[in-house]
Amino acid sequence: MASRKDTLVRRANRVRRQIKAVANGRPRLSVHRSSKNIYAQIIDDVAGKTLASASTLDTDLRSSLKTGADTAAASAVGKLLAERASKAGVKDVVFDRGAFIYHGRVKALAEAAREGGLNF
């Protein structure tokens, strides 16, 4: 029987494989959430480089947030990431939710990034 970690890794790899197949050269907006924080980065898979990143651990956000583990924090990270992406010249991305379902904090981050100007 596969462990929970093995199941999550398989699911994340399956999602990433499908995303890379339809990306058409667009960078990937990858999201990771833990029980206390949420992290997001825009990755150029062709060059193997991170173009922009944001998390609840950033000093810009950390002081203004009550906690890093709620939807308000996730939406703040999404807005900050969209702002940093526009400075880096990125407008179109592919959303990579990893092994996490599109619900709650992941959904809040995605919607805030869309409001900030990212297209996916």
Structure report:
Strand 2 (38-44) and strand 3 (49-55) form a beta hairpin. This protein is of the alpha+beta class and 120 residues long. The protein has one domain: Nucleotidyltransferase, domain 5 (2-Layer Sandwich). The protein has helices at 4-22, 59-62, 71-88, 105-115, and strands at residues 28-33, 38-44, 49-55, 94-96.
Which properties best describe this structure?
four-stranded mixed sheet, globular, 43% helix, 4 strands, alpha+beta, 120 residues, Nucleotidyltransferase, domain 5
The third-level CATH topology is Nucleotidyltransferase, domain 5
How many strands, what sense, and barrel or not for the largest sheet? 4 strands, mixed
Category by helix and strand content: alpha+beta
Shape: globular
Enumerate the strands of the largest sheet in spatial order, edge to edge or round the barrel: 3-2-1-4
Label the CATH architecture.
2-Layer Sandwich
Task: Kindly provide the radius of gyration, computed on alpha-carbon positions and rounded to a whole number of angstroms.
Answer: 14 Å
Number of helices: 4
Overall number of strands? 4
H/E topology pattern: HEEEHHEH
Residue share in β-strands: 15-25%
CATH class descriptor: Alpha Beta
- Helix % is 40-55%
**Are there runs of 5+ residues with pLDDT below 50, and where?**
none
The tally of domains stands at 1
